[in-house]
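Project standup — Tuesday

K.O.: blocked on the structure for the chain from last sprint. Re-posting the sequence here as requested.
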Amino acid sequence: MRRLLALALLLAAVPALPARATPGPYHWSSKPIDSKTAARMRYSYHSGCPVALSDLRYLTMSYIGWDGGGHTGEMVVHANSVTAVANAFNRMYDQRFPIRRMRLVDDYQGSDDRSMADDNTSAFNCRAVSGSSGWSMHAYGQAVDVNPVENPYVHGGRVDPPNGKAYATRSPARKGMVTRDVIGDFRVHHWGWGGYFTNSKDWQHFSRNGK
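H.V.: unblocked you, prediction finished:
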């Protein structure tokens, strides 16, 4: 009896784990960039960007987290890409494809390197193509990077982010790696995938024009 009482007291002292959010129905919403969101975007948007803030939309979406629970993420995309992106992530949600996190790149002071290293799924960032002076499709809000650590950018002998090196080899399939289903979720909207690039492999990258 004493042993049972001691065990009960011990278990009572163990802090409870946070409850996992049970996945409910998929939901998404979008709205124009208001003054509050524009203030948050002080790192990702600046003078000289190839799109106006009025061309962009603040998008929130359900996603399945690494814990298997339902979460709500955020990203900024071009107004003409809202439906394609929301629908693609809807299909991913239904497939229970896990997303590590989904935050604005401004939470990383606009640093693509920091966002990728934190395995952040994101879209708009007014920046040039890596190693180039030309605008990235991210600068138009017409590209999305999915789980960058598990789907790194492999180019010129480099792997970005560096902590994604173990995933540069695409077999065996592992949690969070882009699947045929995920590729199809974007291709149904005629978006291209960086895994099809010839001189590099951008496994995380999906874009409206395939670049």
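K.O.: great, moving the ticket to review. Residues 129 and 136 are 4 Å apart (CA to CA). The chain has a mean pLDDT of 92.
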